[in-house]
Amino acid sequence: MWLDLLFQGCMDAVQSEQVSRTIRILCTALISFVFLIAISSLFLLVFVIEGQGLFRRGIFLNCACRLLAVFEGYREEKEKEAVMKPDIEKTRNYYRNLGPENICDCAYCQNYCARVKTAYPEVARYLDSLGVDIEKPFETSPLEPDENGYLEYCVCQYIVFGSCPKDFTHRIGDVTFGRSDCHPNTGIDEEHFVLDFYPIRLPFEEPESEDIDL
Ligand SMILES: [Zn+2]
Question: Are residues 196 and 156 in contact, defined by beta-carbon separation less than 8 angstroms?
Answer without folding.
Answer: yes
